[in-house]
Predict the structure.
Amino acid sequence: ATARVDGVETVRWQHGGRDHAVAAVFHEAWRAPDGRVGVALANWTTTARRVTVGDGRLAGPCTVHVADGGSIARTETAAGAKVVELPPLSAALIENGEGGPPWRSS
């Protein structure tokens, strides 16, 4: 099922005589075989983006991993909606810790 993600802007441009409109941040929810739930976010634009993930499956404490170029930042969050700052050309993973060992970045 998809996650509720607020604050996603639509990027619009024209090229080759055609109008284009695409979400600035792509997102998808998933459930791992061990029961953990996560939401993946990807900012494909060259502009920093701020979104709020209000998915009830992530209502408790979570871990947010943001990958930006060659680095990965990890942040623990409290219960409630998760506000994620996405740098340009970055990806993020929000995961709850229920069901199995936490995802680890290398």
